[in-house]
Design goal:
CATH topology of the largest domain: UDP N-Acetylglucosamine Acyltransferase, domain 1
CATH architecture of the largest domain: 3 Solenoid
Largest sheet: 8 strands, mixed
Organism: Alistipes onderdonkii
Order of helices and strands: EHEEEHEHEEEEEEEEEEEEEEEEEE
Protein name: Acetyltransferase
Shape: globular
CATH class of the largest domain: Mainly Beta
InterPro entries: Hexapep, Trans_hexapeptide_repeat, Trimer_LpxA-like_sf
Pfam families: Hexapep (PF00132)
Distance between the termini: 36 Å
Strand order of the largest sheet: 7-9-11-14-17-20-22-23
Mean pLDDT: 97
Family: Belongs to the transferase hexapeptide repeat family.
Low-confidence stretches: none
């Protein structure tokens, strides 16, 4: 394995990615990393945890890449902030596409993660730092913005457009030709049958979907 990798994050999602990467022999994981203020231990899964501020002292960062495994908290804004911190340091971001995903597009943004069992069809375009979870089906001719999270089992029809920083919960469906504004939160099991017209930050739940008019996505803890 020629690729040397550092995993940004120490959450259960970070550990799961480490195990998948190890199993698929995608890269050699040298360390986990997080901000010094968030460190409460020195190793994880037998791998050292190194403060982000000290990476260049511990590794030749010209020879390493960083996989950003920060999740969807605060409508993906924390992952967005970390993404730009990594870039500002001049470090290289890793894009992970599982060997067990079926991917038929090369338009995948920097730092995105596509999990095992996902289907990403022809003419699908992913933005930067998107997370496409296991068994998601992105059918065809779909445009997805930056910092989007799509949970396991979701199905997105053709000619759909999804804005930046959206969250699509487990087993949700988005019908073909729908347009989803940025910062939309779609709850688990929600069936979106048409474009969302409430603008940025709406919250939708249910089957068929209904808008929670008294909620804004950035105020919902997910």
């Amino acid at each position: 394995m020629g690729l040397k990798l550092i995993i940004m994050g120490t959450t259960p999602f970070s550990i799961m990615l480490y195990k998948i990467i190890e199993k698929e022999q995608f890269a050699s994981v040298l360390a986990f990393t997080t901000g010094r203020a968030f460190m409460d231990k020195t190793e994880l899964e037998g791998i050292p945890i190194v403060a982000f501020e000290e990476l260049s002292d511990s590794f030749d960062m010209n020879q390493c890449m960083i996989l950003n495994t920060i999740g969807y908290s605060q409508m993906n804004d924390i992952r967005k902030k970390v993404f730009f911190q990594i870039r500002e340091e001049g470090y290289k971001l890793c894009t992970f596409i599982s060997a067990n995903a079926n991917v038929y597009t090369d338009k995948i943004g920097d730092g995105s993660i596509i999990m095992p069992g996902a289907f990403v069809g022809p003419y699908v375009e992913l933005g930067v730092s998107d997370i496409i979870y296991a068994n998601v089906s992105l059918t065809h001719h779909i445009t997805i913005g930056d910092f989007v999270f799509i949970g396991s089992g979701c199905v997105v029809g053709g000619n759909v457009k999804i804005g930046d920083n959206c969250f699509v919960g487990l087993n949700s469906t988005i019908k073909n030709k729908a347009k989803i504004p940025s910062y939309t939160l779609i709850g688990s099991g929600t069936n979106i049958l048409s474009s969302i017209t409430e603008g940025k930050g709406a919250v939708y739940v249910g089957n068929p979907a209904r808008c929670l008019a008294d909620k804004r996505s950035v105020d919902v803890k997910i």
